[in-house]
Amino acid sequence: MAKEFSKNIQQRTPSGLIVAILAILSLYSQSILINQFAISVLIILGMIEIIRLIKNKVTVAVASIAIFIVISLISIDLIKFFVLFSTLLWIFILITMIFFRGWFGKLDHSMIVTLNLMGFYASFLYMCSISNINETNNFLVIFFIVLNIAVFDISAYLFGTNFGKTKIFPNISPNKSLEGFVFGAIICSLLLLAFLYFQLIDIKILSILLLSLLFAVLGDIYESYFKRINNVKDSGTILPGHGGILDRIDSHMCTFPIVTIITILFL
To answer: Where are the domains of the chain?
Structure first.
């Protein structure tokens, strides 16, 4: 067990560092064009992974390409409607997953995952387009969201793998434990309090970032379910030790639309 865990960490580290450096450089540029190009590459790779996994390839391929083009061309004001739709879709997923499991299993999850991916794309473009979020640089807020999820995922994975006992959704994502979630939330809370102390964020941004952890878990669990019903462990192999693009952005697909809606409505 210890050897397998150590080997997994060694595989994850190089590709994880490369992705992190590229993400930091892209956001640091504060260029809408560069960031749109970067997110477009991720979305296209994610679309390819979805199509490879599912049976109704033609339908999903046509739908995903059409939605991708529409989102890329329409105005920011119209993008808001797609972000709202994506947020409502995630609420629908949560409700059916918890209270209507029989019905939940009959849904067209290939199309839902595609819509979730496009919701992430739309919300990321919106976040890049606005100048500031509650007087904080918008690219800095995006960076904090990505960093917050990364720290949560790593700390929850490390602690949960070694000490996790209580499974959150054993039938959907058996590797997710309550202990890992709590430990990850504590580490993120300490990190965000440090950011607040050094006045990098304010209390409103801190609250949103803490709330986003719940959405990150939902995105992670749902993508795990999608992989499980398609009988695969990882969505792809492009990132050694991590799997595919969807394996890395699963939490972001849920977090970004909901955080964007909160930003639109309250900040």
So the answer is: 2-266
Q: Contact, 267 vs 260, CB < 8 A?
A: no
Q: What amino acid is encoded at 104 in this protein? A: F
Side chain identity at residue 238, one-letter code: I
pLDDT tens by residue, 26-77: 888 888 889 889 899 989 999 998 988 887 788 888 888 898 888 888 888 7
Q: Cα 112 vs. chain centroid, distance in angstroms? A: 15
| CB 205 within 8 Å of CB 193 | no
Q: Where are the alpha helices (DSSP H) in the chain?
A: 2-29, 32-53, 57-73, 76-99, 101-104, 109-129, 138-163, 178-197, 203-229, 245-266
Residue with tokens 């991708």: 68
Which residues, including other chains, have CB under 8 Å from residue 214's CB and lie 6 or more apart? none
CA torsion 87-84-23-152 (nearest 10°) is -30
DSSP assignment of 141-184 equals HHHHHHHHHHHHHHHHHHHHHHH--SEEETTTEEEEEHHHHHHH
- β-pair partners for 151: none
| pTM for this model (two decimals) | 0.89
Distance CA 191, CA 174 (A): 27
**Which of these, 140, 257, 260, 256, lies nearest to 201 by C-alpha position?**
140
Return all residues near 231 (Cβ < 8 A) that are at least 6 apart.
Answer: none
d(CA 256, CA 236): 22
Distance CA 109, CA 93 (A): 10
Q: What is the 3-state secondary structure (H, E, C) of 213-237?
A: HHHHHHHHHHHHHHHHHCCCCCCCC
Neighbours of 207 (CB within 10 A): 14
